[in-house]
Design a protein that fits this description.
The complex is a heterodimer. By secondary structure, chain A is an alpha/beta fold. Helices cover about 30% and strands about 25% of the residues of chain A. Chain A contains ten helices and 14 strands. Chain A has helices at about 85-95, 115-125, 145-155, 160-170, 190-200, 220-235, 245-255, 270-275, 280-290, 330-335, and strands at about 35-50, 55-70, 75-80, 100-105, 110, 125-130, 205-210, 240-245, 255-260, 265-270, 295-300, 340, 345, 360. In chain A, the strands form three sheets. In chain A, strands 6-7-8-3-9-10-13-12 form an eight-stranded mixed sheet, sandwiched between helices. In chain A, helix 3 (about 145-155) packs across helix 4 and helix 4 packs across helix 5. Chain A starts with about 35 loop residues before the first strand and ends with a strand. Chain B is an alpha/beta fold. Chain B contains 13 helices and twelve strands. Classes of the chains: A alpha/beta, B alpha/beta. The interface of A and B includes residues 82, 222 and 360 of A.
């Protein structure tokens, strides 16, 4: 099962598929069609300046040719550091911002070509949970209004019916049903995130983009929300795109994990495989940088030199070559394609086969 | 607290510190009887969730508590001298000279209208007789020391021209420019990406060796603590609930809150089906429970928990504010114990002196 059938390009798509980049190999799909297929997605933000601010000076290449599929019922984790484009990618998939080029197909429908009526229908199925539970809830709306708004928009105009539905949702996400008339400021961060989750669930979506859903929460509250997300996935057969910078959180929830660097997907594999056998030097460095909460374990630490280059002016060839401990001459010239190096493990590195697992030892 | 360490004397000794905030809605006991010490060239990790009082403790050490907050009780001894008895002028000399602090968000702690070099030079001139020229040279030297490439040029740049990791390096350079005995680092890497965090932690480890500097590391990231700290203090709702060396705290935690924290974080190196959770939320500072502050969330809650447990020794150099016996068993007391009975229930363990 490949994604080629989904690559029907729309008329407004201008950029041709990049030379040298293979069509994405399919993920193990158990014979099922992917729920969501992202194909060569590009999002550039123009940098404008000059007189009246109309001259285009350049572009921030936030997402620069990303392809992957998400199978029904799975959780695809997406990790990367700030500025890697993971949040922009989520927003483009949600059609909150328009893409520069590329396509996203949901259940076989090309999302970017839907008219407003079709889009409204598609939005029932695609929902989002945001990072900041303080900024993403309207302070002037009660919980009932926040959670019930989507129901109203999609035709549940009977107030009593709506309130019953909201109460049911509150119960499912572990909130007190009596609190339906309260306002967001009356809740703690963890409770607010539950409200955000209830809102996302209201229309019984198939697919939820979770953009850093727990990173604003305290440690003891994080685990409550993570457990809730996985319970709801079982209960409603949800499919998640789980975007986060915390690799431990992503591993916990995801079946497959993609790693982004400067607008590119550099590695994509089954979660366990990726963590135990990283095949891209950036993934390896990222994993090695995470402190392990166990003072008796010492793991190999690869400290990357320097900072993330600017996405407005990414390095030539492989974008990671300026910081890569394995970089060779070819890396400066030729951009490595994302290729299958066996068993559905994709890596965009010329030397993917030479990347060794992290060394770890127990100190006594 | 061993006698050996007392004979040399710890670098920092906090005793019964209480910092309260007198607000219109009532008194918030942000720090309520905190005691701990840091030895010379040692790193102490202070762990806890937001609102537990860890940052207020560090600001108290710096004497940077502003109204409506007030240090109402306790002593903070640095090199044997009580900081709470110092005048504002004396304190200004101690800050930077003996104890420095770096904050979580480097952008808000740097002055946007001065260059990085000038800001470091100001700290140098405050504490030494250096001329302007010498102070600038020292600033460039410090920037190079913390691993900023092309330090001379960077010293002439303004904070907004630097990345987050660079700014945090500038903060560290400034904090270390006067060679302090104690560095207080309040969530120094929380705002940074993991690869940059790794750089900063390595830098702090390096400088700790080179300068024989003690670090009070405040963080909620247990991974960072495991990696950096010699000893750990766990705080909850303004009180220290457990204290011990890093291996004991991670390998054999006694307090149910510490256990809960350690079990509820997803691990990178092992996959579990379901995370354990600490139920409920941190109590409101305006409405703290009587007795043990953690009892509403505690899986081991017993009748005796309505009486506030004292900090008791549960192992060598290991203390915990919980009624459970050192082995983690419930003590045998009646359903409605008096404080004396509850106290006696833990008689086989000695109440830690002070």
């Amino acid at each position: 099962m490949t994604t080629e059938s989904q690559t029907d390009m729309s008329g407004d798509v201008t950029a041709p598929p990049q030379a040298g980049v293979q069509p994405m190999a399919a993920a193990p799909t158990n014979g099922r069609a992917p729920l969501l297929a992202v194909d060569d997605l590009v999002k550039h933000f123009d940098i404008r300046g000059g007189l009246m601010g109309v001259t285009k000076l350049g572009a921030v290449r936030a997402v620069d040719g990303v392809s992957f599929t998400v199978t029904e019922g799975e959780t695809l984790g997406l990790v990367g550091e700030s500025g890697c484009g993971k949040t922009t990618l989520g927003k483009v998939i949600l059609r909150l911002i328009p893409p520069t080029s590329g396509s996203v197909t949901f259940e076989g429908k090309p999302l970017f070509q839907l008219n407003s009526r079709e889009l409204k229908a598609a939005r029932r199925d695609i929902q989002v949970v945001f990072q900041d539970p303080y900024a993403s809830l309207n302070p002037r709306m009660s919980v009932g209004e926040i959670v019930g708004e989507g129901l109203y928009v999609h035709g549940m105009t009977n107030k009593r019916e709506r309130e019953a539905a909201v109460r049911d949702l509150l119960k499912r996400v572990g909130l007190n049903q009596q609190h339906i008339h309260r306002y967001p400021h009356e809740f703690s961060g963890g409770q607010r995130q539950r409200i955000g989750i209830a809102r996302a669930l209201a229309l019984r979506p198939k697919f939820i983009v979770c953009d850093e859903p727990v990173s604003a929460l305290d440690v003891s509250i994080q685990s409550q929300v993570l457990n809730l997300l996985s319970d709801l996935q079982d209960e409603f057969q949800l499919t998640y795109l789980f975007i986060a910078h915390n690799l431990a959180v992503v591993r916990h929830l995801s079946s497959r994990v993609g790693v982004m660097y400067l607008g590119k997907l550099v590695e994509l594999a089954e979660a366990d495989d990726l963590y135990e056998n990283p095949r891209h030097p950036y993934t390896k460095a990222l994993l090695s940088a995470i402190p392990i909460p166990d003072p008796t374990v010492r793991r190999e630490r690869i400290v990357l030199k320097g900072d993330l280059p600017s996405p407005a002016n990414p390095p030539s060839g492989c974008r990671f070559h300026t910081r890569c401990p394995m970089a060779q001459e070819i890396c400066k010239i030729e951009e490595p394609p994302l290729r299958d190096i066996g068993g559905g493990h994709l890596s965009a590195c010329h030397f993917a086969e030479d990347v060794t697992p992290l060394k770890e030892r127990v100190v006594s | 607290m061993t006698t050996a360490s007392r004979s040399i004397g710890p670098l920092l000794q906090i005793q019964g510190l209480k910092t309260h905030f007198f607000t219109q809605d009532g008194t918030v006991r942000a720090v309520d009887g905190v005691s701990f010490q840091i030895g010379h060239a040692k790193t102490l990790g202070v762990v806890g969730e937001s609102g537990c009082g860890k940052s207020i403790t560090s600001l108290s050490v710096m004497r940077l508590i502003e109204r409506p907050g007030k240090i109402v009780e306790g002593t903070i001894e640095l090199n044997g001298e009580d900081l709470l008895e110092k005048s504002d002028e004396e304190m200004r000399d101690i800050r930077g000279d003996q104890v420095s602090m770096i904050f979580q968000e480097p952008m808000t702690s740097l002055n946007p209208v001065f260059t990085c070099g000038e800001q470091i030079a100001e700290a140098v001139r405050q504490h030494t007789a250096a001329s302007h020229r010498e102070a600038i040279d020292r600033a460039v030297e410090m920037l190079a020391l913390v691993g900023i490439p092309d330090a001379k040029r960077r010293a002439r740049e303004y904070p907004h021209q630097l990345s987050g990791g660079m700014r945090q390096r500038v903060m560290i350079a400034m904090a270390l420019s006067t060679d302090p005995d104690l560095l207080i680092a309040d969530e120094p890497t929380t705002a940074l990406d993991v690869t940059i965090q790794a750089q900063i932690l390595e830098l702090m480890r390096d400088l700790r060796e080179k300068n024989r500097m003690a670090i009070m590391l405040i963080t909620h990231d247990l991974g960072v603590v495991a990696e950096m700290a010699d000893e750990v203090v766990v705080m909850y709702s303004g009180k220290v609930v457990e204290r011990g060396d890093v291996r004991t705290i991670f390998g054999n935690p006694h307090h149910p809150y510490t256990q809960g924290l350690l079990h509820s974080i997803p691990r990178l190196d092992e996959r579990v089906g379901r995370l354990e959770v600490i139920k409920g939320t941190v109590p409101s500072p305006y409405n703290l429970p009587t007795g043990c502050l953690f009892k509403r969330r505690c899986p081991f809650r017993m009748p005796v928990c309505d009486v506030a447990p004292p900090m008791r020794q549960v192992g060598e150099g290991h203390t915990s504010r919980c009624w459970l016996t050192p082995a983690g068993e419930p003590p045998e007391v009646g359903t409605d114990p008096t404080p004396e009975e509850a106290e006696a229930a833990g008689e086989q363990v000695t109440v830690e002196p002070r």
